[in-house]
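User: Before I run my own analysis I want an independent prediction to cross-check against. Here's the chain; please return only the structure tokens and, at the end, one sentence I can use as a sanity check.
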Amino acid sequence: MARLEQTVFPRWQKLKEEVGFDATFEQFAPYSGAHIRVRTIDDYTLESSMELVEANTNYVGTHFGGSLYSMCEPFFMFLLMKNLGDGYIVWDKAATIDFVKPGLGTVTALFHIPPQEIDALKRELLRVKKLDRIYSCTVKNESGEVVARLTKTLYIRKLRESAAK
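Assistant: Structure tokens:
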């Protein structure tokens, strides 16, 4: 049976080492093309933002919904992978996005998973083989109004000791 493990794709790892985590996204076509910027605030918090430019507008000139989702898609997974460390698998399982109002100007989303949640996950995964967790964020415009709400379901599993090595 194949060993279940999770590794960072080599191109991402190389870029992360060469230019840093945040700047790596400037090399990632869906992010550079949509003018999405990423900023690490601390080990448990990331922020993404997207200015409105012609390349990321929809048919009526507001933010394209796919870009709004894209600016939120990977960050809860990244936070969990970083903070759980080796020996765990984290996969996106499901997502929903609710478009609340048209996105204009620069929009921003904040992603935070507190250290207490990381500790609780580690404790729970000592008792159960795998679990799902739901995390959510909001995309806000420059006035602080909600443009979209995103919910992500993540699958989290602790590897057996022999598989984690």
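Sanity check: The mean pLDDT is 89.
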